[in-house]
Specification:
alpha/beta, Aspartate Aminotransferase, domain 1, 2 domains, 7-stranded mixed beta sheet, 4-stranded mixed beta sheet, 16 strands
């Protein structure tokens, strides 16, 4: 493959964009592929190279890059009526009604413009509603580029994970390991009266996909109720991708107090949302005193794209297609890993998947057949990732420096690092899966 145009575009970008990109996850060495257009389950870069796309916009692209006619028509009709008005529209009510109808824990919704805005609003709302300041987060979890969650450390000492964040912010955040019930129980024993909320992804999606162990979310739910704190599920990534229309919380049978959403609910356009019980949500201005606002919130083009995408998904049984493809690609990867890289771990659920380059595995006999499910009877249960640190200890450099680039040469576009999930879309086909598995077989 030739990559000279991408190289030249990156050279230009370095003069006007910090690091040549507008989000650091898009960076790769020596330079990223600059995408020119999408085509179904594929993207074509500026050099004309064609790739099976498993980045899918880092999650928002659920239907693929060729939108159904009814979705395109609705978006075009809205654009022709004017881009935005700074006033309420009916379509934002309709999208909120759709979400509230299908996600059991959500009665009311406030739309914002990104996942970061959604989690920022959720943390502020939890603090305002409870009158408390501390927020518990999972080590290695990601909740956007906001001061309250860009922290590292443990329950004894949390520090900012980025320059520019005052230490005072980190002092109000309590990081604990995902799946560690003893750690979260100790935090509530020591600080329960000060904790406003526990904020967690139901599945760690920014650390190679780490599934919850059985009963972990039940423990979070019980502890927060006992101590008067809120449970916030960050479903920016998993929302309307895992667990169908009920989201991941429906799959796990847990009803959080607040939920953050983004990605899929915008149909590929910028969006975010926080939803939950009416009693809590009505603390937001103008019905309450917790301030939250945004010029572009509830943007009519985004609301239209999101609503029509979700309507199409509901009508066309898209989730079954995605679940079937997900099981097929993960099962195929399990077989390939067993033959070629028995230390590695295949993870994921529904339309999400990843191979984590874990070390010192116990072999593949008796492993979960379609990706790690935290099964204590699995032969890999002692070595498969249970929290973010397990993924961070994997051979992450091999992914970034070798594997990602070789897969690109095979015509398969993955995320440039070990930590980000891969995503399937409704446009992916049986042929795409077979071709992708052959590429993994050739490269691993």
């Amino acid at each position: 493959m030739r990559h000279t145009t991408s190289r030249d575009l990156y050279n230009r970008a370095l003069s006007v964009l910090p690091g040549g990109v507008n989000s650091p996850v898009r960076a790769s060495q020596p330079y990223p592929a600059f995408i020119e257009r999408g085509d179904g389950s594929h993207v074509i870069d500026a050099d004309g190279n064609r790739y099976i796309d498993f980045v899918a916009g880092y999650g928002p692209v659920l239907l693929g890059h060729d939108l159904p006619d009814q979705v395109i028509a609705a978006i075009q009709s809205q654009v022709s009526d004017g881009p935005m008005y700074g006033a309420p529209t009916e379509v934002e009510i309709e999208l909120a009604e759709f979400i509230a109808r299908h996600v059991p824990s959500i009665e009311m919704v406030r739309f914002v413009n990104s996942g970061t805005e959604a989690t920022t609003a959720a943390v502020r709302l939890a603090r305002g509603y409870t009158g408390r300041d501390k927020v518990v987060v999972m080590q290695g979890g990601y909740h956007g580029a906001q001061e309250s969650t860009l922290v590292e450390g443990d329950r004894s000492e949390a520090v900012p994970s980025s320059p520019g964040i005052p230490a005072e912010f980190a002092s109000q955040t309590v990081p604990v390991p995902f799946n560690d019930e003893a750690a979260i129980e100790q935090v509530f024993t020591e600080q329960g009266e000060d904790i406003a909320a526990v904020l967690t992804e139901p599945i760690l999606g920014n650390r190679g996909i780490v599934m919850p162990q059985e009963g972990y979310h039940d423990t979070l739910r019980a502890l927060t109720r006992e101590h008067g704190a809120l449970l916030i599920f960050d479903e920016v990534m998993s929302g309307f991708r895992v667990g169908g229309l009920g989201c991941a919380q429906s799959h796990f049978g847990i009803e959080p107090d607040l939920t953050t959403l983004a990605k899929v609910i915008g149909g590929g356009f910028p969006v975010g949302a926080v939803g939950g019980r009416a009693e809590i949500m009505e603390s937001l201005t103008p019905s309450g005193d917790v301030f939250e606002a945004g010029t572009f919130s509830g943007h009519p083009v985004t609301m239209t794209a999101g609503l029509e995408t979700l309507r199409y998904v509901a009508e066309e049984n898209v989730y079954q297609h995605l679940a079937d493809l997900g099981d097929e690609i993960r099962s195929g990867l399990v077989d390939i890993v067993a033959d070629q890289a028995p230390d590695y771990t295949v993870t994921g659920i529904d339309s999400m998947f990843k191979v984590i380059f874990t070390r010192n595995g116990a072999g593949q006999e008796g492993v979960c057949s379609a990706g790690c499910r935290q099964d204590p009877d699995c032969t890999q249960s002692e070595t498969c990732p249970t929290d973010a640190s397990d993924v961070e200890a994997a051979a992450t450099d091999r992914w970034e420096r070798v594997f990602y680039h070789k897969m690109r040469e095979e015509g398969v576009l993955l995320t440039p690092n070990q930590f980000e999930s891969q995503f399937l879309t409704a446009a992916h086909t049986q042929e795409d899966i077979e071709e992708t598995l052959e590429a993994y077989k050739a490269v691993l």
